[in-house]
Amino acid sequence: MSPRVILLFMVLSACATRPDVGSDLHRAIAVGLSRVERPAHGFVLTTFERLTDRRKPVRIYIEGDGRAWITSVQPSADPTPRHPLALLLAIEDRTPNVVYLARPCQYSRSRSRNCEPAYWTDRRFSREVVEAMNQVIDQILTDAGGSRIELVGYSGGAALAVLLAAKRKDVDSLRTVAGNLDTEWVNRYHRVSPMPESLNPIDVAERLQGLPQVHYIGDSDAVVRQDVAGRFLARQQQGCATVIAVRDATHETGWAAAWPALLEHPLPCADRLLIRE
Length: 277
Known about the structure:
This protein is of the alpha/beta class.
């Protein structure tokens, strides 16, 4: 069964200049997202959280790779993103329970004993990173008094959203934005070194075939090509997944303004009772 691809025609506008990250953090606070730092697995993970309805699932936004590299061969000293797109998406979301989950060492490098460049370069999708984020999600659910989550991942955060969804039994839906869903293929395409200590999300694709999921791709994205999502869905053979191509969106631009409308798109199989073994 070939993946279903929907081309979404919409007029997207992107600002010519972007505010600095401090302005984005202030915007998050202005819409009721409170900063929380959560220790897990030797890291301190930064979140911005709004938890207001114990009856509803918690929608968790996972950030991209951030400023992982200064050059093609020199890692950054601090992976905190200058343009935290997942945070901007969370700001646009009016769901009662919204959480922005930064990656290990973003915003908190000096307070995490395990922070070293490998965790935002070669090992950024390693088992220990997945486990740290999994522990933080457990903490969030305990504080929220809820039992279900919805995952949204941007770029490399999409890879981690997939890996977390395959690990957990409480995920109601998965949305990815410009998602790196086959890390080995993307690395080969860009002729960069492989990541043998990282997990590849496409390897767990079959385990998600009953999960409602939408994979948003930018038709002008030169970083993660559109066929990456197609490869991911092909591994599922059949299931509850859709690809939506967003006109004029690049890897980093065109998403925040479009996000409220994109969230209105119905999830496939959302009316089914999901049984996760």
